[in-house]
Design a protein that fits this description.
This protein is of the alpha/beta class and 419 residues long. The chain has helices at 24-34, 72-77, 80-96, 100-103, 108-130, 146-154, 183-189, 198-206, 258-263, 283-290, 307-316, 333-340, 371-382, 390-400, 403-414; strands at 6-11, 37-42, 57-59, 136-139, 160-165, 192-195, 215-217, 241-246, 272-277, 297-303, 321-323, 345-348, 362-365. α1 (24-34) crosses α15 (403-414), α5 (108-130) crosses α6 and α6 packs across α7 (183-189).
């Protein structure tokens, strides 16, 4: 049910390009339904093509043409207001942040803060000109425009600020500077951050001295599958065993290991078929490895395709296994999509993965599992020594990762205004 509220929604690139933040495509309709007006403010515009948006959703490029601060010290010292803001934020951080030792080095954090203040000035100017009345602010990431918004809220310029927390914006290990910048200060000033998994929430709380009550959980979700895929006759021993992988081809995704793993499966010459969706910098390595597959294993490289094409594939094919070897994950939407069709998942027991993969929905691997050990697990599936009920998998999905359920609940959280 639509309210009379306006939502200002900050993203990295969405809705520009085809590949950026594709998972927002599942959420945007629910935001459109809940708010009278949705204004998307992306940070980058690497590709000019814009995805189709609901009628009441618009895009403002105010941050895209903004030039980064060249000399942070000159920029800060050119204004008493900026200098006092930096002094206040930095002092608070050094006194209260668990990672205060990193901030004592200055450097990158001063540069980061200077740019956040510049961005805050742009947002404040936009709000004055647009005359928006008490909008709600939502950043899709904890590290994007959230520091700017936190500062504006501390000044009383805005009132309601929320964000999500996924992966790179959660874990300190992914930052060369040693920590997610200004986490404690941001939590002090925004209304709430919603982690996409229980694991992420626990990690964030472990980094905080205060304001742990502001950290919530809001699972992402995908639409429930209404397709009735006809299960293949499992008695027919000639039926092809179908495996799908879906990932961008970065080194940490380890897709190039799959050919050797499949080659080690004790298939007794039963036909196998491996289909991969996604492209990336490791494409050459993956394709070269796939050339070494034995003749009883067919390989199809789909590359980057529209999300609807992936879903159509699941609807038209009875997939036996979704295989992931990724070493870095939050709680992948690609797994939710497969699970919505009753597909069992095999993946490492890392980060938020155990929240979607359990003994009823798939196989959890030890992070140091060898190719031989992984192939043995697939052999057990192929030989029916491990069996999963697709109906039970789909029911688990419906209870945990339904877009209808999760995004409606999340929009209600956004509407809990202070004023």
């Amino acid at each position: 049910m639509k309210t009379g509220e306006t939502l200002v929604f900050f993203t990295l690139q969405y809705p520009y390009g085809k590949k950026s933040e594709t998972f927002i495509e599942n959420e945007i309709q629910y935001l459109s339904d809940a708010f009278e007006r949705v204004i998307i403010i992306p940070r980058e515009k690497i590709h000019t093509e814009q995805r189709i948006l609901p009628q009441n959703v618009e895009v403002n490029d105010l941050l895209i043409n903004s030039v980064k601060v060249d000399n942070q010290f000159k920029y800060i010292l050119s204004s008493i207001k900026r200098f006092m803001a930096v002094l206040g934020i930095y002092t608070y951080t050094i006194l209260n942040d668990k990672k205060r030792v990193y901030y004592l080095k200055g450097g990158y954090f001063i540069y980061y803060l200077a740019n956040a203040l510049k961005e805050a000035e742009l947002i404040e100017s936009y709000l004055e000109k647009s005359k928006l009345k008490h909008p709600i602010f939502y950043d899709y990431w904890f590290v994007n425009s959230t520091l700017s918004l936190a500062h504006l809220k501390s000044q009383g310029t805005i009132s309601n600020v929320y964000c999500r927390a996924h992966g790179f914006d959660v874990f300190n290990e992914r930052w060369n500077c040693g920590t997610v910048p200004f986490r404690q200060y941001i939590l002090k000033n925004i209304n709430a951050v919603f982690a996409i998994s229980k694991y992420n929430k626990q990690y964030i709380n472990g980094q905080l001295n205060r304001f742990k009550e502001k950290v919530g959980i809001a699972y992402l979700g995908v639409r429930e599958n209404t397709s009735n895929v006809c299960a293949k006759n499992k008695i027919d021993e000639t039926t092809t065993f179908l495996i799908v992988s879906c990932a961008n081809l970065f080194p940490f995704k380890q897709i190039e290991r799959i050919p050797e793993i499949l080659s080690l499966v004790q298939s007794e010459q039963k036909e196998m078929r491996w289909v991969h969706f996604g492209d990336g910098p490791n494409e050459k390595e993956v394709l070269e490895a796939a050339h070494q597959l034995p003749t009883n294993i067919a390989f199809e490289y789909k590359g980057h395709v529209a999300n609807s094409d992936v879903l159509d594939f699941y609807a038209q094919n009875d997939v036996d296994l979704f295989l992931s070897l990724s070493l870095k994950e939050g709680l992948p939407v690609s797994m939710m999509e497969a699970q919505s069709f009753g597909v069992p998942i095999m993946a490492y027991s890392i980060f938020g993965i155990p929240e979607i993969v359990n003994d009823k929905t798939g196989v959890l691997l030890e992070v140091h599992a060898t190719n031989e050990e992984i192939s043995q697990k697939i052999t057990q599936l192929l030989q029916k020594k491990i069996h999963f009920n697709k109906t039970e998998i789909r029911q688990f999905f419906k209870e945990k990762f339904s877009a209808e359920r999760n995004f409606k609940s999340f929009t209600q959280n956004l509407l809990q205004k202070d004023d």
